[in-house]
Design a protein that fits this description.
This protein is mainly α and about 230 residues long. It contains ten helices and no strands. Helix 4 crosses helix 6.
Amino acid sequence: MSKYSAEIKISACKEYLTRTISHEDICKKYGIPLYRRKNDSMIKEWLPYYLEYGEGAFAKNKGNNSYSSEIKKQAVEDYIYGNGSIRDIYIKYQIPSTKTLRQWIQVYNANRELKGYDPKREVYMAEAKRKTTLEERKEIVAYCLEHNRDYKNTAGIFDVSYSQVYSWVRKYNASGEDGLTDKRGHHKTDEEVDELERLRRENKRLKRQLEENDMAVQLLKKVKEFEGM
């Protein structure tokens, strides 16, 4: 269930359309996260539904909990063959966002399989499915938080694993958008880590030195044994 009531969504959409207050002030008023890029927010995802269905748009959750590979393919082909705009199609198929539809189109155009999602499928122990960009991780975290931290459903919609979504949300809560940056491959120097980590590193170095010394001693013994033969 969304943490934003139908009343909040309707009021936010109305105020955005009438321009009585700024987009940023609407977000502050209702506690809606304002994305840093392009001054965007969930309000712009709600607007097409509001414009299409009026105040009844949010009477119940418009988002599908399940997207079969056939539904995904049909939605993408509707767009490719000119049967509607991105906005028209994402409303028609009740897709969570235009970005999700664009993602499906990219997969389709790359001749990759549009896999279906069954919300009953077990995903908790699934390994990371694919690499993601920083912008994708921001979108996924925003969607998960907007939908009451529904990690499992978010994982299925965006074709990532439960553990990925959970980890990104946790990092976002701890460090904001900086926490979503992929820092793999960056090895901190001894000066950049705390005292405990420095001690751990020093311990590993000493162990390696001892192992190397022991190997040298064993090698020397072998040499002497060989020379004495």
